[in-house]
Amino acid sequence: MKAKERILCVLKYIFLAFCVCIAIFPIVWVILSSFKTNAEILTNGVSLPANFSLTGYKDALTISPILNYFGNSVIITACSTFCNVLFLAMAGYVFARCSFRGKNILYFILSLAMVIPMTALLHPVYSVIQKLGLYDTKTGLILVYTALNMPMSLLILRGSFLSIPKSLEEAAYMDGAGFVRTFFQIMIPCAKGGLTSAAVLAFLNSWNEFTFALVLTSGQSARTLPLSLSYFTAQFSFNYTALFAAVTIAVIPSIVVFAVFQEQVVSSLTSGSVKE
Questions:
Q1: 19 in a domain, yes or no?
Q2: Domain housing 111
Q3: What is the DSSP string of 58-80?
Q4: pTM of this prediction?
Q5: Which residues contact 245 (CB under 8 A, 6 or more apart)?
Q6: What is the CA radius of gyration of the chain?
Q7: pLDDT recorded at residue 194
Q8: Which of 131, 148, 160, 231 is exposed most, by the fewest CB atoms within 10 A?
Q9: How much is the pLDDT for 134?
Q10: Cβ(211)–Cβ(119) under 8 Å?
Q11: Does pLDDT of 13 surpass 50?
């Protein structure tokens, strides 16, 4: 390897290490700060804790109903992710394999939802949920989160089904399998990478969503984990230790889920880039 190539290689790794540090530093800082006291945070925010204390986590569990909100988030996120992947897998398969009048126009309209700002949907979504009698219910949030993740899931799953050879379906039909059986027993296992990718992204979006959870709920029975962070700030005081502990509790599940399934997410997003 020439000297110039070695220098470029070293610079490349230095740049990558710099990017990793920028990405990881806020997460590490929040987690370490959750073990500090308010005085330590206000004195030197970037120092290591003098004594690792769990007081922040005890305060977080005492000040807010964080465990109740955590349970609500698990139920709502799990149900909305399952519904999103199931229904959008069916839609993606139809758009990938079937031909019908207005197919491209319909797909364009559904994909157009990705460029609509979420804030523009607040009033119409609120009105629909109110008329359906689903305000301040888990069911209402499940339906909303399922719909909000629709464009991205449809894009991923349609691409995944397009990457599967048609010969597999033809062989299944020749063996006597029907449309439904072919979909569930042949196509779904072959598209598990795309299903995993869509599920992970839907999970992350639903787990971290704040605005609709705030607008569509009023009591503790259906509110989700991100809303619990408002309990730790007041007009004239801040419990930073408890706040950082609550943030840590809120972000750990997202980090774990993405870390476990990151390979499937990356591979499915790249393999789905095919032409019709």
A1: no
A2: 63-271
A3: HHHHHHS-HHHHHHHHHHHHHHH
A4: 0.84
A5: 34, 56, 57, 59, 60
A6: 23
A7: 87
A8: 131
A9: 92
A10: yes
A11: yes
Given the structure tokens 């139809």, which residue do they identify? 94
Quote the CA–CA distance of 93 and 179 in Å, as a whole number.
Answer: 11
Count structural domains, the chain. Answer: 1
Are the beta carbons of 96 and 161 closer than 8 angstroms? yes
Alpha helical stretches, state H, the chain = 3-33, 38-43, 55-63, 66-97, 103-111, 122-131, 138-148, 150-162, 166-174, 179-182, 188-190, 192-208, 211-215, 240-271
Calpha distance 251→27 (Å, rounded) = 9
SS3 157: helix
pLDDT digits (tens, 9 = 90+) for 202-245: 999 999 999 999 999 988 888 999 888 877 766 445 778 888 88
Going 177 to 181 to 184 to 187, the CA torsion angle's sign is positive
The CATH number of residue 92's host domain is 1.10.3720.10
Per-residue pLDDT, averaged over 140-160, amounts to 91
> Is 195 a member of any domain?
yes
Does residue 41 fall inside a structural domain? no
Q: What is the pLDDT of residue 272?
A: 47
Helix axes 3-33, 240-271, angle to 10 degrees: 140
Which of the two residues, 271 and 43, has the higher pLDDT score?
Answer: 43
User: Are 55 and 244 in contact, with CB atoms under 8 Å apart?
Assistant: no
